[in-house]
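Pasting as-is:
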Amino acid sequence: MRIDITKISPAEWTGDAAALFIFEGEKEPVGILGEDAASVVMERMTRMGFKGRPDSVLTVSMPGGRLANVYIVGLGSRKGATLDSWRRGIAVSVRQAEKDRNKVLMVLGAEPFSPEVSSALAEGALLGEYRFDKYKSKDDTSETPEPLESLLVYQGDEAAVARGAVIAQAQNFARDLANEPGNVINPSTLSEKARKMAEDSGIEFTLLDEKKMKDLGMNGIISVGGGSHTPPRLIHMVYRPSGEPSGKIAFVGKGLTFDSGGLNIKPGEYMRSMKGDKTGACNVIAIMKAVSELKPDMEVHGFAGVAENMPGGGAYRPDDIIRMFNGKTVEVDNTDAEGRIVLGDVLAYASRQEPSVIVDMATLTGACVVALGPYTAGIFGNDDELAASFRNASKITGERVWELPMDDERLKKKIRSDIADVDNTGGRYGGAITAAMFLREFVGEGVKWLHVDIAGVDNSDEEYGYYRKGATGFGVRTCLEWLSKFENR
């Protein structure tokens, strides 16, 4: 879908459809549609009792008229509306316009769109039209809606729309990767997709294979990937600005292309969605794609530890002792707590690059889902200001996060081992926190660090807002929003 700015008056425009955003209780903006359309819309709004409540959309069909369809999109109260209200509203409008077989949709409001709203509209439109159906057979009787060809934003900000499109396309790129099944995406193929993205985007790309990682002492990744026929990989991507960088930050992602649980094999119902255990890595690859286009003045590194956790003759075992890249030893209590072992090596390696900040993303613990539900990610860190800045960014993007405590020394004792430096599990209670405490053991001294546990929010089993069923790419937009504020602070 192409997104363009237009200054053509909605009262004069002739086309497929228009989507008008209104706040609750405000009907005056309908007049912007022109007298011919406004009279029909007002009558329909009165008859249907449409108030403009959040996420509500009224479809007004006008066969033979200047506009075939008008969609009135409710934002709720003017005081309570957020940028995410605009994202959700345009997403629903785009989907309805596609169902109605429109090719062009004009979007308008009571006044010109601000840069922030313009960006949100582009994001919501592209996120809302996303679908992953490449493996479905298509025939002439298919009722799948056809995508819009063009979205016209009336009196929008051109630069902001372009920025919003880059961000949404990155999130959709992450969704595409995460939605791919384990027989298509494995450590080797995901690495090659990252390589191609880097080459196309003009950023540096380095791949560490199993031999190089073994030579470096990355026994965590090597152990987790030992049971698979496809050996593990470590991806390192670097964006360097044209001028002197104002700082250096790193994003780290967990990339378990499939997680069977290893020798502590998962029950069938918990193994079903484990193609999504690579989402953190997919997000990092997508973030680096967007960074190459947004061109911040920061030096940005992206790391992804990629492995497949399978049972087999080479699989690591409960009771194994693993010496990690930073020299610390880990006692394996459960082979299904593998993501933190992979991330331990990657965090230690990323710390060697001396960034001022590391942000990692991982589908790490079911405990986080139990604690926060399927719509909120958990965040943990070693710096209060960093956590607060990330929370503030999430309020702008609409990706809900909540900080969990890291200061309970009694809970930290749960990951102590009698025969190694640390145990890879801390028991059932406080499991998301003890997992984060484990990761903290591998973050370099003096590096500010934030861990984002996206288990539960990485995939949706329902359609709502700008999400369809499947991978969400949750975290991509918040990381990019946080980066833009970090860059400009």
